[in-house]
């Protein structure tokens, strides 16, 4: 039983899957860095210097300068700016994954067309019989 388990673990598909999971984690970190360090500052520049990561809403009339200040005061803070960052990160991840899958599909060979089906054995025997009758 241990041999079968070892053979299952060492198959190419399992190793490929493990590599894909590790690469996806690394790609996610790279994309999150891109979104937070490059894309969001550029979006903030376009929107007049607004930093979305600092945007939040608290219920009530009290105004807090930061999310941390609101949390220290025990007030629930809705961090919609962080949510916008996450949505943009999702869009970038989706776009990158689309490009990767598109490039991968271009590298695959098109499926070969099946050879045209010839006559069956019975049809050949029937043709031979008919030729012998003549």
Alpha plus pi helix count? 5
Shape: elongated
Q: What is the rounded distance between the termini? A: 65 Å
Helix fraction bin: 55-70%
Got a strand count?
A: 0
Main sheet makeup: none
Beta-strand fraction estimate: under 5%
Oligomer: single chain
User: Which class best fits the helix and strand makeup?
Assistant: mainly alpha
Write the element-wise H/E pattern from the N-terminal end onward. HHHHH
Describe the protein in words.
The protein is mainly alpha-helical. The chain has helices spanning 2-9, 12-46, 67-72, 80-107, 121-133.
Present the secondary structure layout.
Elements: H1 2-9, H2 12-46, H3 67-72, H4 80-107, H5 121-133
Please tag this protein with its features.
134 residues; 67% helix; elongated; 5 helices; mainly alpha
Task: Summarize the model shown.
The protein has 134 residues and is mostly helical. 67% of the residues lie in helices and 0% in strands. The chain is elongated.
């Amino acid at each position: 039983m241990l041999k079968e388990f070892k053979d299952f673990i060492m198959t190419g598909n399992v190793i490929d899957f493990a590599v894909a999971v590790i690469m996806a984690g690394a790609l996610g970190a790279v994309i999150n860095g891109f979104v937070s360090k490059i894309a969001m500052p550029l979006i903030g520049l376009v929107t007049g210097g607004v930093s979305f990561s600092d945007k939040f809403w608290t219920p009530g009339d009290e105004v807090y300068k930061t999310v941390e200040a609101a949390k220290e005061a025990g007030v629930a803070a809705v961090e919609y700016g962080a949510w916008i960052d996450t949505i943009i990160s999702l869009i970038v991840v989706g776009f990158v994954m689309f490009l990767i899958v598109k490039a991968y599909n271009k590298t695959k060979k098109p499926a070969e067309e099946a050879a045209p089906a010839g006559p069956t054995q019975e049809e050949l025997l029937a043709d031979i019989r008919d030729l012998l009758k003549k």
